[in-house]
Recover the amino acids of this structure.
């Protein structure tokens, strides 16, 4: 059993004199959760306990520790994979997941993005150039007001018009009324333009409501779905993405996940959280905060995310990097230089600021992107 | 609409000259996600946007900012409540959720712990004194070996014998075989002792598997369930806890949640994550890393968790603080001084170290706790 192993590189804050012991402690913590002297000899000690593959100093007092785990220890489940990757060790200070190498036998257990970058282009009818997304907001508007926004934006050529992630089932815009109105509005615009603009319904919700909302959204004509893995768990996204009776592009929102990346000595590297894990979860477009906006992500961190979304990953399709948050026409050149064309730009508030005529504002954005 | 508001106190790293602008930025980010000048006048600007209730300096360059949000903005859902509490702001450096005050009209939307501290005591038949929990490990053992451990531990008087959180559905101990064997072993011990020891099955799993595993565990005789909200989402726990056809005590494991607490200037205060959110999710016993063990939590942080588990919270029952991780007989006195009797001690590896005769080891622990 288990010739192939999952390799995880952790950044560990510890002096050279302690790093061997820290590495072993993580290898035990993430698997058998026992002191070494109590680990049964044979298969468990030799195979189940994490192997220390490599240790190197990265900076004074900071080491890179590569451990490997049996593929079978993940039990074929994304939930248990997260456990194995960083379950208990997430609770210890000075440990960060920097990189993950997944063998083919592990990757084959996942379908990955159903559409991916290329499939999304086909679905949207946009073979080249950057894709464009915006968000319906603010919370507090009625379904009719949100639908009118959606219509204007679709008329202006935006590819994906999504619910703001805070639009759920509030009394002033109940889920079904909102989704039905917005889906119909985008389809009406499509009949006028001949384009294939997509309304993406936010279906993030209670465990017991979620599948009902997914089915309703599909029947009402929403042609993509938005889910927040921080709120519902990564495997919930995988289940929805993998379901052939749904078969809609899946957008992932970073809400409530920030604590996993903002401290440089804890959590996960940006590319692991917003790239690799999203692809395992079957996400077609991974939304994350862009550099230079109102979030603190650096350009390097954002490039790491884009690379992790697009890099080869066995049989799994690439997913579309979708930077957003404080995007403006004035930082478009910097974004183009960073991301090139294999990207979906998410402009929310910045688009509303361009003009109160949203169709006009959308055309202005597309023109600036060379998409008009 | 909405005379009652949810109050959230954030710790914000910012100088006094910027704190008013930062507070407003969070109030906008967590609700309408628009620059202030674009927010529609009237209900949205006056009620939906977070109100700045209070700002005070806590230390040079660190402020406490209390904002309030409409109860209706949470849309009656735990997922959307997390969004409102700390969705996008989690992605900005220097913001931490320190405290949450929930009005009665919000709390009434949640059932909370089905058993709670007192109900758990009744269920276990232990009216006074600390409760005791242990974990079946290591990963890699067969169902038969785990069941034999469970039998020995139950014979020795342990109240709750749970799966280690890494035991899921690995090929060497498939879920159904393990759960059936362990549940039967604990019941066999109960027939001999006349006690009510409980086997808690780890049902953390794929979205599509989870309810099947819950039903199987109940039918096989597991009398409690273990779930990791970091892996499956807090609302999944609430759904299982609230289900009258399940009606088993629910234990919560902190796996993969550490990034939410380990950085003092990001994430959530310990009591919010391991106390308040757990009670909203209907958790009966909240497991968290104890001070003085192999995790870095301080005694003060652990006391904050225990208080948040037990303090009055409108109609919601208290949940049982369950510290574990590196617990030994040698630190028992310090734990007793910290927690008193309203606690469940989780001793895993430490118990296995006491003796290879697990029944004897269990008796030794209970005796040290004054429970023999």
């Amino acid at each position: 059993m288990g010739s192939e192993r999952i390799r995880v590189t952790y950044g560990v804050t510890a002096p050279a004199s302690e790093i061997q012991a820290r590495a072993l402690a993580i290898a035990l913590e993430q698997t058998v959760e026992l002191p070494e002297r109590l680990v049964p000899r044979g298969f468990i000690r030799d195979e189940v306990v994490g192997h220390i593959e490599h240790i190197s100093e990265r900076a004074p007092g900071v080491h890179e520790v590569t451990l490997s785990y049996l593929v079978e220890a993940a039990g074929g489940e994304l939930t248990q994979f997260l456990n194995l990757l960083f379950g208990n060790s997430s609770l210890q200070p000075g440990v960060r997941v920097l990189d993950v190498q997944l063998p083919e036998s592990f990757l084959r257990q996942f379908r990955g993005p159903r559409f991916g970058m290329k499939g999304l282009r086909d679905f949207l009818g946009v073979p080249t150039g950057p894709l464009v997304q915006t968000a319906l907001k603010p919370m507090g508007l009625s379904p009719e007001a949100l639908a009118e926004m959606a219509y204007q934006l679709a008329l202006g050529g935006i590819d994906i018009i999504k619910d703001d992630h805070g639009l759920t089932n509030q009394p002033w815009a109940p889920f079904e009324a909102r989704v039905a109105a917005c889906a119909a509005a985008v389809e009406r615009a499509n009949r006028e333009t001949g384009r294939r603009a997509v309304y993406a319904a936010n279906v993030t919700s209670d465990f017991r409501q979620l599948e009902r909302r997914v089915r309703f959204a599909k029947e009402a004509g929403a042609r993509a779905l938005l889910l927040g893995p921080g709120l519902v768990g990564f495997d919930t996204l995988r289940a929805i993405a993998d379901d052939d009776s749904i078969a809609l592009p899946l957008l992932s929102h970073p809400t409530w996940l920030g604590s996993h990346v903002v401290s440089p000595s804890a959590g996960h590297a940006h590319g692991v959280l917003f790239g690799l894990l999203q692809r395992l979860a079957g996400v077609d477009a991974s939304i994350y905060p862009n550099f230079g906006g109102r979030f603190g992500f650096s350009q390097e961190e954002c490039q790491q995310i884009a690379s992790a979304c697009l890099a080869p990953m066995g049989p799994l399709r690439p997913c579309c990097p979708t930077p957003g948050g404080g995007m403006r026409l004035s930082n478009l050149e910097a974004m183009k230089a960073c991301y090139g064309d294999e990207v979906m730009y998410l402009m929310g508030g910045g688009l509303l600021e361009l003009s109160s005529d949203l169709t006009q504002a959308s055309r202005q954005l597309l023109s600036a992107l060379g998409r008009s």
About this structure: The longest helix of chain B spans residues 175-193. Chain B has two domains: 5-107, 116-368.
